[in-house]
Every structure is written in C-alpha cells, then in structure tokens.
Amino acid sequence: MSKNLAYWEKAKREGRKLAFITAYDHPFARIAEEAGMDGILIGDSLGMMVAGDADTLKVTLDQMVYHTGIVARAVTKALVMADLPFGSFEESKEQAFASAARLVKAGADIVKLEGGAPMVETVAFLSLRAIPVCAHIGLTPQHVRQFGGFKRQGKTQEAASRLWEDAIALAEAGARMVLMEAIPSDLAAEITRRVPVPTIGIGAGPGTDAQILVLHDVLGLNMDKAPGFARAYVSGAALMRDALAQYAEDVRAAKFPE
Ligand code: KIV
C-alpha cells in the first residue's frame, strides 16, 4: 500500500503514530523502505551527515535534486519528502515554485520548507499549483546564524504564541504537514490537536502525529555529537569500523582472497 498523503491523513484521523527517517542515498533508502518506514526525508541535513559541514547552509538545489532522485528510485511505498535548501525559495514564490518543481520531477511527493509567517504566501502559492508542502517551524536549521546556534525554540510565552500562530496560518495556507523541531512538548501537542494536518516532531516530545530522526543518529553513524533528543539503535560506526579492520587484517595476513 502506498503511504501517500491520503494514508497520512487517515492515520491522523485514526490517531495512529507514524515514523519518518532521513535518507540520502539509494542503499539506505532501500533499507529504510524495507524496515517499513512511513516516510523518508531527503533532508538538507545531508550537508552535515554526508558532506561533513557544520550546518546545512551550503547545500544546493542541484545536490538536493540529485539525492532526491537516487532515494526516490529506491522507494515504492513510503512518502518521499525533499527539502528546499537555503537560498532556493526565500526570494519569491516564483523562485520557490521553480525549485520545488525540480524536486517533484526528481521524485518527491512533498517538499519541505523552513520558516513561519513569512512563508505563508509561498505555501499558498505552491499548494495552489499542485505542489504539496510540509512547513518546518521551531528550530529551523537554515536560520542557525539568526538563532546564534542550534537552540531550542518557543521557550518564552511570546515565542510559543508566535509558533502556534505560524502553525495555524501555514496549515490554513495549504500546508499538508507541519514539522516541529526542538520546541516544548506541550506546545507541539497542542498544535497537533489544533491543526487538521499531520504533524511530525523531532525533539518536540511524544504528542505529535509522527516522529522523525536523522538516519545517521539512529544508526550510530553520526561521528559528531548527536542532539540530546536523538536515540541510536545500533552502534553503526563501530560495527563498520570493526568490519573494515577485519578485512584489512585478512588482506595483510593473506587470508583474503582465499
Ligand atoms: O534536514 C533534515 O534532516 C531535517 C530534519 C532534521 C527534520 O530537516
């Protein structure tokens, strides 16, 4: 069964929790799909997880189109979401449409863009032109310079109210999903109850309709410090390091090839 937007909306109505993960290449996308993920995000976090940058700001639209294509080819059921990278959508709604259309042509079912109230008009423009949008609010990593680091958001009453209003405005403008990152749990749960579209949380507590984590954090492949809210389910880096060391040892000891 295709886990398309209708599947997601039905799950919200029925109160069923769904799981999203990021993936950036074909083999990991296949593994995620075989593991039964409901959604796969080609996140611009690839700038950090794959390219080794300190933030996501250098990621280009061409890179996102390439990675979306190779992930989408591996996925038959999960919803495929792709990020609009920094600099590819903020200038005008027309720029956003042209960029989003490239991601859809590459295989995205829905595009994600970061930003609250200033993005309402863009979300409406895309939504009216056949492009489903997920609005990403809270700790939006593309605003890291403005935030002065990767800092939790919505901590004051005023900031929380602004996020609440942004979420409602974005959903009313046509956003088909709202992703909330690193905001207080009670706020994320309240927004989830208030908006009619599925919400996805990361570091936003258990009250959202779905959860998302970065693949490298879940598999223990993040060689830098993973965020406190992430959970590693396997020590992937250590397992792979041991396997490679064993291979090298076998070659040196003339045990491979036999
Ligand atoms: O780029 C990304 O991986 C994301 C997730 C952290 C939600 O936006």
What is the topological layout?
Elements: H1 5-14, E1 18-22, H2 26-34, E2 39-42, H3 46-49, H4 61-72, E3 79-83, H5 93-106, E4 110-114, H6 120-127, E5 133-138, H7 144-147, H8 157-172, E6 177-181, H9 185-194, E7 199-202, E8 210-213, H10 215-218, H11 236-252
Molecular structure report:
The chain is an alpha/beta fold. 42% of the residues lie in helices and 15% in strands. It has eleven helices and eight strands. It has helices spanning 5-14, 26-34, 46-49, 61-72, 93-106, 120-127, 144-147, 157-172, 185-194, 215-218, 236-252; strands at 18-22, 39-42, 79-83, 110-114, 133-138, 177-181, 199-202, 210-213. Strands 1-2-3-4-5-6-7-8 form an eight-stranded parallel β-barrel, surrounded by seven helices. α5 (93-106) links the parallel β3 and β4. α4 (61-72) runs parallel beside α5, α5 (93-106) crosses α6 and α8 runs parallel beside α9 (185-194). The longest helix is centred in the C-terminal third of the chain and has 17 residues, at 236-252. The N and C termini lie far apart (45 Å). The mean pLDDT is 97. 3-methyl-2-oxobutanoic acid binds at residues 22, 41, 43-45, 83, 179, 181, 202, 212, 214.
Q: What value does the average pLDDT take? A: 97
Low-confidence stretches: none
How many H/I helical runs? 11
The major β-sheet equals: 8 strands, parallel, barrel
Rg computed from alpha carbons, rounded to a whole number of angstroms: 19 Å
Order of strands across the biggest sheet? 1-2-3-4-5-6-7-8
Strand content: 5-15%
Shape by Cα distribution: globular
SSE succession = HEHEHHEHEHEHHEHEEHH
Distance linking N and C termini = 45 Å
Bound molecules: 3-methyl-2-oxobutanoic acid
How much helical structure, as a percent, in the residues? 40-55%
Quickly give the structural class. Answer: alpha/beta
Please tally the β strands and state the result.
8
